[in-house]
Amino acid sequence: MTTKEYNLAVDEFADNIFRFALKHLRNEMSAKDIVQETFTKVWIKHEEVNYEKVKSYLFTTAYHAIVDWVKKEGRSGDIEKAPEQSSDSIAQFDVQRVLDEGLNKLPEIQKTVVMLRDYEGYNYTEIAKITKLSESQVKVYIFRARKALKEYVKRIDLVV
Fold it and tell me: What is the CATH number of the domain that holds 116?
């Protein structure tokens, strides 16, 4: 990959990687650090990276950086431990907020595969390569995550 192609990749994918990291980490500064780390790692190997595959390489690198950050910080969610909502917040129902909360309660791997599939538009094969899972594992995690999100959204205290 040339310097010009690298700069194009930064322009084209930096925002997507930031959103991907921010959804996982829920911390703007940490998400910016992940973006920086991702592009630094890609620059170090820019001569080995094919520009046609740079998007996949970037998301794979970002995913591994996020996993390392989560391990280091010891942060992960659990969908069953959703906080109870007060009646004040029920009156201000917001679907996107509820989905974001539900997404943040998922185990990291489920959250990752759902975000790559539904937010970034990757197919199962690409997600499997990024996460180093089998295609069938990816499908199972996506199924379980969507099922958990559906149950989370259906909770009566969140939607009434």
Answer: 1.10.10.10
